[in-house]
Protein: DUF2065 domain-containing protein
Organism: Caldimonas mangrovi
Amino acid sequence: MSEVLWTAVALVFVLEGLLPFLSPGSWRRVFEQALRLTDGQLRFLGLASLLSGLLLLWLLAS
C-alpha cells in the first residue's frame, strides 16, 4: 500500500511539472488568472477537482 501511495504522489509531481516545463508562459498566465479568482471560485474548482479524482478512482477500482 505504501508503495502505491508514493507512486501516486510521484505521478502528481510529474503531471504538475509538465505545464511549467513545456510552456512556462502559459503556466504563468494560468497562475495570474487564478490570483484573480475569489475564494469561493477557488473552493469550487478544488471541490470539482477532488470529486473528479474520487470518481476516477472509483471507476478504476470497479
Remarks:
- The chain has a mean pLDDT of 93.
- The first helix runs from residue 2 to 22.
- The CA atoms of residues 14 and 31 lie 18 Å apart.
